[in-house]
Amino acid sequence: MFDNGRVTDLRPRLPSPLQEVTDDRFARHGVRLLLKRDDLIHPELIGNKWRKLAPNLERAAGRTLLTFGGAYSSHLRATAAAGRLLGLPTVGVVRGDELAGRPLNPSLARCSADGMRLHFVDRATYRRKTEPDTLAAVLRAAGAQDAYVVPEGGSNAAAVRGCRALGEELRDHADVVALACGTGGTLAGLAAGLAPGRRALGIPVLRGGFLGEGIRALQEEAFGGRRGDWRLDERFHFGGYARVTPELEAFAADFERRHGLPVERLYVAKSLYALAVLAEEGAFAPGTRLAAVVTGSPFAG
């Protein structure tokens, strides 16, 4: 895939394993729960991070990678790790200029240790980061005018096309595929790869109700129009990104005890909780093979 002699450092485990778990919350409704273990694709570029970054790394062709994220962004960590493994310079534009000069949290410290140069911007600038003039100013201020720019969350047309393989891996194994969504790029590609008659379900982890429009735009850019049968259920964000309520924490801890699987709280826990509620509501017909995509693993610091 890469011609710089370090391909073995980024060799993924594909297709990722599909693990069936027995859980009475689903079984009593006749639903089979399958876990699509994308968290096992690569030890550092975990889950959808591999699927979205790999095609962008190819397009970068050795140039500096510049991307965006918050103070705890798993996308920033994955990009920094890819840069270290491939010997590519990376720049992370971090939301919140108040963080500059403070001790780095464990997530940003990992990015820095992997060689990523961190550039902090105020929140107003960050909100306008996709505007051409603002982006150009950020690139100049970061000293990265010639960088290859990867958007926040890694979601662009190349990433969406990369995530189509996730749906293709599940074509013959699942009737409904569900995952938590941040920017929507993984769902946009996943839905395009599913077989006719299969459907994708996205669980947004942010409030706002804006994600559907973003997914439609990503599919338009990647494929020329809407692809696949997909929908969103907006009820399970638990107050917004990075919000973990006691109820969600209790659910995630219980799931871990039942199945011996570490549950990442900000995305994966919300999707699994949503599926348990939906199963109780009768959203899945008896006999449904329901695949939950495990898009990440807990960050150990």
Explain what you see.
By secondary structure, the chain is an alpha/beta fold. The protein has 2 domains: 7-44 and 157-293, Rossmann fold; 64-146, Rossmann fold (3-Layer(aba) Sandwich), CATH 3.40.50.1100. 38% of the residues lie in helices and 16% in strands. It contains 11 helices and 10 strands. The strands form 2 sheets. Strands 1-2-10-7-8-9 form a 6-stranded mixed beta sheet, sandwiched between helices. Strands 5-4-3-6 form a 4-stranded parallel beta sheet, sandwiched between helices. Helix 4 links the parallel strand 4 and strand 5. It starts with 17 loop residues before the first strand and ends in an 8-residue tail after the last strand. The model is unreliable at 1-8 (pLDDT under 50).
Record keyword descriptors for this entry.
Rossmann fold; 11 helices; 2 domains; 16% strand; 4-stranded parallel beta sheet; disordered N terminus; 301 residues; alpha/beta
